[in-house]
Design brief:
There is one protein chain. It contains 14 helices and 8 strands. The chain has 320 residues and is an alpha/beta fold. Strands 1, 2, 3, 4, 5, 6, 7 and 8 form an 8-stranded mixed sheet that branches.
Amino acid sequence: MAHYLDFEKPLAEIEGKAEELRAMARASEEMDIEDEAIALDRKADDMLVELYKNLTPWRKCQVARHPLRPHCKDYIDKLFTEFTPLSGDRNFAEDEAVIGGLARLGGEALVVIGHEKGHDTQSRLKRNFGMARPEGYRKAIRLMDLAHRFKLPVITLVDTPGAYPGKGAEERGQSEAIARSTEKCLQIGVPLINVIIGEGGSGGAVAFATANRVAMLEHSVYSVISPEGCASILWKDAEKMREAAEALRLTAQDLKMLGVADRIIPEPLGGAHRDRDTAIASVGAALSAMLGELQSKSPEELIKDRRQKYLDVGSKGLAA
């Protein structure tokens, strides 16, 4: 079932009318209205191009959060072979918001870690809407240690509104776990590649995204706080989220200019949710290319390269 965003309502009307015409034609063999339906299809295609030509930062946030957008599990299922999930932090519990394990990409053994939001009510509750608890970050640390020990590259897929802020998570050391995970990203002597596939929210994203290479899907976002949260703090009004999204410079295009992101992965017209297979294939090609770029570097060079990247963040594009 199609799911339309607020700014896509005119498109929904046109595509709905085209589908109604086709339904009427199926119900009555005497009606021949395919030409009218095709004309509406062309109008819808033109409108889709126009809508997505210059998306505002707030609209990009909406696309990044689209419920039908491919999530971490979709990428793992399509891109990786021999995926073997590894569970638990060996301390408290298993966190279903974080998926991780051993896998192969194009035959190369590696470790993959990512946030998973879920695709329906039941799975979203199980995955806590992609908001990891401390045990999720401690599981990631365990897997990064494993990758370092066996000299396996690490790929992380980020899609989270932020780390879970619940009382239990805070009692178990949420901020410490995030800090340790970020520290571990900077310490491992293997290639570490990150892709922001949807939302990259706050320290919950940074804990996985402190990588040698950071790629962002064209309509993904990455920020220290959500636009709604920022608006609530600065203007005491969450409805100011559009202004906040502009000020935060959270789009892939802004972050590439600032040196936070290294690569922008194009999405199909209308967003990754409109052509999931093409979007996933584009991410796979980008991952293979980035792994190739880092393959010849020594552990010392990888660590130095990673640290220097974050020392340099913000030094580009400040005048823009």
